[in-house]
């Protein structure tokens, strides 16, 4: 499957599973000094591989494609430029995770699946959508984790592959819902540091196998 095809497949999956609504959210994959990214303001059900754009990471210029690239293009290019190991990004405004982002509250480790992301899902400081500082804050807050919340905005999930980044975007939404529910039941029981260490260790072998 071509990169463009995979991007369309995952973008549509984000829409079908409710991680994004309308034309919000975007998906990208790094290829050397370039990246492929979804277009701006195109309904997901109309998207085809011809709509995916190839963008130069350094100049931000469109190399291939006739559409306008996602308004979050500077965030994607700057994340790739600042973090060599990141190969794919899924950005959503999924509801429960975005509630935590708006409340400026990290998602706590209430379920072991958080180990696929990190010790928690932290919140990066607010910066205007589409701005270059958004990427700086996201990368800084991300550290070694695989996902981060953007204050008053949404979610960034990253990975070696688009499938990894997508799985993490989905996990972050699930974790946010579970944390939200735990708050509603007034009984939030995060894993202990030791339990978290164990889970993180487990995920290392899980993802490398
Ligand atoms: Zn956004």
TrEMBL record:
Pfam families: Aldolase_II (PF00596). Residues 5-180 form the Class II aldolase/adducin N-terminal domain. GO terms for molecular function: aldehyde-lyase activity; metal ion binding. The keyword Transport does not apply. Coiled coil: none annotated. One of its GO terms (cellular component) is cytosol. One of its GO terms (biological process) is pentose catabolic process. It comes from the Bacteria. Keywords: Lyase, Metal-binding. SMART domains: Aldolase_II (SM01007). InterPro entries: Aldolase_class_II_sugar_metab, Aldolase_II/adducin_N, Aldolase_II/adducin_N_sf. This is Fuculose phosphate aldolase.
